[in-house]
Model the fold of this input.
Amino acid sequence: MAEFEVPVLSIKNLNKQFGKGCPYCQDEESLVKNYCPVCGTVYACRDVSFDVFPGEVLGIVGESGSGKSTLMQCLYFDQEVTNGEAYLADYHNGEKNLFQESSQQQRYIRNNIMGKVYQNPLLGLKMNFSSIGNIAEKLIAAGNQHVGMMENRGTELLNKVNIPVHRRKEAPKNFSGGMQQRVQIAKALSNRPPLLLLDEVTTGLDLSVQASVLDLIKSLQRELNISIVLVSHDLGVIRMLADRTLVMLEGRVIEQGLTDQILEDPQHRYTQQLVHSLL
Amino acid sequence: MNTAYNFAFFDEGSKREIRRATLKAIAIPGYQVPFASREMPIGRGWGTGGLQLTLSLIGKNDVLKVIDQGSDESVNAVNIKKLVSDTTGVATTDHTAEASLIQSRHRIPEVPLKKDQILILQVPLPEPLRYYEPSENETKKLHGEKEYSGAWLMLFEQIMKYGSMTTGADHPVMVHDRYVMAPSPIPRFDNPKMNESEALILLGAGREKKVYAVPPYTKVVSLDFEDYPFEPESFEDKHCRLCGSTGVFLDELVDEATDETFYQCNDTSYCIETLNEVEPFGVK
Ligand SMILES: Nc1ncnc2c1ncn2[C@@H]1O[C@H](COP(=O)(O)OP(=O)(O)O)[C@@H](O)[C@H]1O
Ligand SMILES: [Mg+2]
Ligand SMILES: [Zn+2]
Ligand SMILES: [Zn+2]
Done:
């Protein structure tokens, strides 16, 4: 990482709470983990800041409930942040806080500058539409008006993620879990975004299928030199793909650094446990 | 005229309320305005949306035409005409040019509409994005943000499946460069008649409780792609067996005796008018 390299994505002090809060939970010490026992507010993401650099895979690891998915939803505008800032180098030279933009602008950003793959394919795909149609959806949303071009691009992408071309008009509901994730990946890549968000993409798949999807992500990342934010509760997945890693606990980033360093010399007690359980 | 009812069946308050929704619909071309759809003495799905608009608008001097898929004589059209004339006493007609109010299901008449006419179309499914997005809340947002990828995606899917945009009826249109609208199940052949129409066009959905409008002289464009332009049904080289007309929407029929295919105007009143015009010519 060069010293003056401009981040693709920069997140500053992102907070997301579910609930209004109350006088009692003004004092963070009174929370039980990330939860206020008095008013029930969940502080899902707390003061999260990080940068993602060009061509980098940034891993985010943490136990279930630590706020990883909420963070990704905020980045993709599926959820509104409580407060915080986000900047994309490819959007107004990284000078506009994405969270302040209109929902129309946020749609533009989603469709042109980002791609996302959800753990649950139901959230990322229209199960009754053809696979190639699912890819076309994102191309159309980015302004494409040419069927032939979209069909070619879709076929090329499905080929890239190893979906047999003759199945391109089939609906993802007919596909296995691994294939559905491949279609989601193809869709996410369709507009050649500089940034890809992956939330537990292999969780729930058989181990062998998991390995082949991870291999695919690895090779696509090398080929396209795309930046990836990769979320997983599984440190094994993170170890395989991430250059750098953030560790989240109860909504906070408690440790970050090069993945190798974190694995070799974890600082935080929680990270030490996590690394131990991997060995 | 049946005097057991208020003029035009509804009480004045109900009619005013429907007219208010209609005015809003005219002010926002292509936008679906909710209205409090009323119980009607005919079943929902039989044009109650259109009928409510007709009853709220009709005045003593109006002349009413009702057509069902091009026919003035169908049971459905006759029932609606009867209900309206029983409760208003207004005159009815088959002649498009004579009517001030035209309620129609699945067709726009062949005789071009004029500026003192109102066309009321019956709508079964007002939401053009419904198959793409089942939630009303979400489709509302999509309209609000002019996010119509879903409308084009549905056309893309048809091309993938059938090799062309074979929607047949109800091909979606963009109204006034702003709202995507379901034109109701009219054939693609009728879509261009909506563009810059001299007559006001109102669309009413009874079951879904929505009214929307294309005001006179409004731009209406059928959705398509650069390499798959919108195409109405074509009846090139075909003519009506009865009146000889070309360039109109024709029904394809089979002569059971000879097994031969022939064509006939779908708009029956147009066909009869054309026949009546042609005959004196032949006599001369
Ligand atoms: N829509 C929601 N409403 C209320 N609480 C939520 C909602 N979504 C997530 N949470 C809570 O936020 C916390 C973080 O959840 P999540 O981001 O899904 O964690 P992870 O992905 O790390 O497992 C959890 O305590 C979860 O219960
Ligand atoms: Mg999660
Ligand atoms: Zn509280
Ligand atoms: Zn004819």
